[in-house]
Structures are given as C-alpha cells and as structure tokens.
C-alpha cells in the first residue's frame, strides 16, 4: 500500500467539478475497462458518466439509460453505459459480459445490483451527497490494472 491509498477520496463543489474529474479519468482509460458507480439517486452517477463521455470525445448527449439498461456511444473508445437499477433479477443474462470484455469502456450505475455478473477487476466509485452541491467521491480499485490507474490519476 503506497501513499496513493490516502488519496482515493475527493470532494467536488459542484456539477462541473464532478464532470471534470470524470473527463480527466477518461483520458487514462482503455478498451475493456469497467467503472462501477454507486450512490443514491441524485448522487451524480449520470453526471459523472456525462463527463467521462466528454473525455472520450463522444458527441451525442448521454442520458440516463434507465429504461433501456444499456446504451452504446461512439467516441475515441466506445462507451457502454448501463443503468441496472431496473434489472429485476441479479442473475438475468442481458449479455453484460460481452460489453465488459468488449473493445470499449463500460460504466455501470447501481453496479452492486448485478454484483454476481461484474468482473472482479474493476474501478468502483462511490458518490455521496454532501451539503448543497458538494459531493464526496471514493475510488475503490480492484485488481492491479485499476490500482495503477488510480496511481496515475492522482500523480
Ligand atoms: P444519479 O445518476 O446518481 O441519480 P444524476 O447525475 O442524474 O445522479 O443527478 C445529480 C444531480 O445533482 C444533477 O442534477 C446535478 O446537476 C446535481 N449536482 C449538484 N452538485 C453536484 C456535484 N457536485 N456533482 C454531481 N452532481 C451534482
Ligand atoms: Mg443516473
């Protein structure tokens, strides 16, 4: 455990700051990366995804995919945006694996709801509402790839 372990928490003061952090994160991502987003309704998961999409040079507007579960966007890398809030059965096979192992970046809102289907190695980001427009983000890397990624982001 290096010093970076202390730096996995960061606070944002407004929507733009959350978006900007995600945009920066995007510049470190590569095909096959999986980002799991956790946090209550309104915590900023979709806002984060929009920023990430901007970083991937996606031109289309990214909206909450609640009713479609999976949306695909073309960018510098493809983005697979999932919101699994309405997945009725945690084990239902909606072909997630193909996305996780695909040639894009996957972002999963409410990821724990399909925990059993997630790749073990992933970057989980917890978002918490603070006072007003403040948010706390806690990054939890699982596996070597994501530990390295976190080191790079905070360097
Ligand atoms: P979720 O997808 O987690 O339900 P959304 O991103 O859809 O959350 O909504 C977050 C809402 O909170 C948006 O209206 C956004 O503008 C607002 N907001 C205010 N401050 C922040 C912040 N610091 N980070 C992210 N969103 C924020
Ligand atoms: Mg959302």
From TrEMBL:
**Pfam families given in the database record:** TsaE
Where, if anywhere, are coiled coils annotated?
none
Q: Which UniProt keywords apply?
A: ATP-binding, Cytoplasm, Magnesium, Metal-binding, Nucleotide-binding, tRNA processing
ATP-binding recorded as keyword: yes
Q: Which InterPro entries match?
A: P-loop_NTPase, T6A_TsaE
Principal cellular location given in the protein's record: cytoplasm
Q: Write out the annotated subcellular location.
A: Cytoplasm
PANTHER family given in the database record? TRNA THREONYLCARBAMOYLADENOSINE BIOSYNTHESIS PROTEIN TSAE
The text of the family note is: Belongs to the TsaE family.
The protein's name = tRNA threonylcarbamoyladenosine biosynthesis protein TsaE
Gene that this sequence comes from: tsaE
């Amino acid at each position: 455990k290096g010093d970076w372990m202390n730096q996995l928490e960061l606070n944002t003061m407004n929507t733009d700051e959350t978006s900007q952090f995600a945009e920066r994160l995007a510049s470190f991502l590569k095909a096959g990366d999986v980002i799991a987003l956790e946090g209550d309704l309104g915590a900023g998961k979709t806002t984060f995804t929009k920023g990430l999409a901007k970083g991937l040079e996606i031109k289309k507007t990214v909206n909450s995919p609640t009713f479609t579960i999976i949306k695909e966007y073309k960018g510098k890398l493809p983005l697979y945006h999932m919101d699994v809030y309405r997945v009725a059965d945690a084990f239902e096979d909606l072909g997630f694996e193909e996305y996780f192992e695909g040639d894009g970046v996957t972002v999963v809102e409410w990821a724990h709801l399909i925990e059993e289907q997630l790749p073990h190695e992933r970057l989980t980001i917890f978002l918490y509402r603070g006072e007003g427009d403040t948010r706390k983000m806690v990054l939890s890397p699982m596996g070597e790839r994501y530990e390295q990624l976190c080191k790079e982001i905070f360097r």
